[in-house]
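Query structure, 126 tokens:
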């Protein structure tokens, strides 16, 4: 294990990275920044249900982890763009197949989820 990870006090150092790339919004941000830089409002519109507060928090964490850069342009009003770093781009080949799998199986998962919830409700009602 890397010295920095061991110095963190975490018993499972890969968890430091997996927590970031496994969160709800980071995967979608990486996928949406894959074709180039985007402004905050563009990302917010692409992600639909993310709140500005959560998006800001996630972008700051990803910037801290070196997955993206934040560039502020000296314009009125100020323009800010987010772009994947080489490290962020290196995640795309891992995340794209997961996204493809999710798109292919979403209907099946939703159907199975509904069936499970119906069974659970029937069991609770009994």
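Result returned for the query:
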């Amino acid at each position: 294990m890397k010295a920095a990870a061991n110095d963190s006090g975490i018993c499972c150092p890969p968890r430091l990275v997996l927590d970031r790339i496994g969160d709800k919004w980071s995967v979608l941000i990486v996928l949406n920044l894959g074709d180039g830089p985007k402004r905050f409002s563009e990302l917010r519109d692409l992600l639909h249900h993310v709140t500005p507060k959560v998006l800001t928090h996630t972008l700051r964490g990803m910037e801290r982890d070196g997955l993206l850069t934040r560039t502020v342009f000296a314009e009125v009003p100020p323009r800010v763009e987010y772009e994947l770093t080489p490290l962020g781009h290196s995640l795309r080949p891992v995340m794209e197949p997961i996204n493809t799998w999710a798109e292919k199986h979403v209907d099946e998962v939703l159907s199975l989820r509904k069936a499970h919830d119906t069974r659970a409700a029937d069991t609770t009602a009994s």
